[in-house]
Specification:
alpha+beta; TolA/TonB C-terminal domain; 4-stranded mixed beta sheet; two-stranded antiparallel ribbon; 8 strands
Amino acid sequence: MFKSVIERQRAGRLGMGLWWSVAVHAGLFGAVLVISSRPAELPEEPEKEHVLTLYQGRQQVAKGYAAPAQPKQATPPKPRRPKRTTMPTQINPLPADPQPVEPEPVANASDTDETVPPGDGIPGGDPRGDPNSTVIGVPYIPNLGPGGDSTGEEVLPFGQGMTQPVLLGGPPLEYTDRALMARVEGTVIAKCVVSREGDVRDCRILKGLAHMDEEVLDALHHRRYSPVTFQGRPQSVSYVFTLRFKLPR
């Protein structure tokens, strides 16, 4: 009876050990499967430095178009040869300084040029003068009797030996409005008779100027001059007035 009890206890212990062994082995086997199924952790690789390298490729040229011409290298300029200094064999004298030109006066009552060239003589007369004359240096004047006495109110041409008429009074010579607008400049030549009393009459224009002829004639007719004298006596003479007009600056 005791033997059967002991055998039962042994059989129970063997059964429990077997189950424990199977359970332990099953757990170990499962742990191995779990561990083997997990991926192995790889070591971290260091970061690589990325280097960008550029390569010059050939230029793509579209078909049908010419490739652009390469610029030509500029040729360096040739050095200039230094000029040789040559000494002149002959030295020309320097030109003389030009003489200063006097400005042309403005036509007015004070500086008007009223001159006349000397007389040209009498047509048909002796080029050497009158051989029987006793007066030296005096031109021949028509209608003038012996001794220098005038025979009347004849008008004599102005000549050598006569005094110049001097302006005593009268209106000044001025530009007209039309002449100023036209900005004319030049010379007016008028021939008048200066009487023995100094009056001016019978004027006519020999050389005119635009818009100024009537003004010149009117001014001359209202002027008064000193009489022209010849051999100390007043004479009525035909006198030529030269009047120069210049615009004011």
